[in-house]
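Bumping my old thread because nobody answered last time. Still need a sequence for this structure:
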């Protein structure tokens, strides 16, 4: 497994792989890898001959008050895990490498990035689409693999790839969970032991909402009740809503397919999760 920091080294290496007819899959990450990330790498290896993993804590997707400074950085451990997974190349650029001095260009989707995390984290998706676009330009992958835990991020990236005619297949990989249902996330380690005990209620609520909706319940009423219950337990919700799984627009009353999206804080830790469901 090769580890490169410079764009020139990345481009040179990938030119060589492409000249041998190898297909390329990219797994963009911010490091601090857990089983969820490793499943993305596994999926990438099933799809392509050559797997590139990027590790870059992207400053432009964090607002000033967010956790950029304390975001866990565990490069050595990450590299060990990626070597075990037999990733082919790891790209670990500096901020200057991805954002050359004087950068003025942003990539931004509109509608799909506006609700949910787009309104509770203004500017977040602009940072994501800009850095993912840069990674796509450098790597020019055939496939790019993202986790479904960041459901809206995946939808935003699919929209960007479609709109900008990127010849890249965007793959969504199912969420990995702890045995109690909590979605794996690098931010789970911020939770105190008490908060960690409460956190699986998020997924439990999603499952209960899906069942109640499948039995004919009204999406808004159900979310109102679940919101009140979670709030009573000490969660502070940014949002909890059913949406159309492709457009993320509000759910039509006759809809048969839905995704339930939640962002909830426990103390200063913001957790997100989602569940796709269907009825009829
Ligand atoms: O999901 C993440 O880890 C990040 O948002 C991504 C896609 C690597 C962009 O920085």
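Sorry it took so long. Here it is:
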């Amino acid at each position: 497994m090769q580890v490169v920091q410079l764009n020139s080294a990345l481009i040179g290496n990938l030119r060589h792989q492409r000249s041998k007819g190898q297909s390329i899959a990219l797994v963009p990450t911010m490091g601090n890898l857990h089983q969820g990330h490793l499943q993305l790498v596994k999926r990438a290896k099933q799809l392509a001959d050559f797997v590139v993993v990027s590790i870059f804590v992207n400053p432009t997707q964090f607002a000033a008050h967010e956790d950029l400074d304390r975001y866990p950085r565990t490069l050595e451990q990450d590299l060990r895990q990626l070597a075990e997974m037999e990733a082919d190349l790891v790209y670990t650029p500096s901020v200057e490498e991805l954002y050359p001095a004087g950068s003025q260009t942003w990539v931004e989707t509109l509608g799909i990035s506006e609700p949910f995390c787009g309104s509770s984290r203004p500017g977040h998706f602009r940072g994501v689409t800009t850095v993912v676009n840069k990674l796509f330009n450098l790597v020019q992958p055939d496939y790019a693999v993202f986790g479904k835990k960041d459901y809206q991020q995946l939808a935003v990236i699919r929209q960007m790839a479609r709109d900008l005619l990127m010849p890249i297949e965007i793959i969504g990989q199912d969420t990995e969970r702890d045995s109690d249902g909590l979605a794996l996330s690098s931010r789970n380690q911020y939770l105190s032991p008490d908060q960690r005990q409460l956190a699986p209620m998020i997924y439990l609520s999603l499952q209960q909402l899906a069942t109640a909706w499948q039995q004919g319940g009204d999406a808004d009423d159900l979310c109102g009740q679940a919101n009140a219950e979670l709030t009573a337990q000490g969660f502070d919700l940014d949002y909890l809503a059913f949406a159309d799984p492709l457009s993320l627009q509000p759910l039509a009353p006759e809809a048969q397919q839905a995704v339930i999206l939640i962002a909830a804080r426990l103390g200063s830790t913001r957790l997100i999760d989602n569940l796709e469901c269907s009825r009829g």
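The chain is about 40% helix and 20% strand. Let me know if any region looks off to you.
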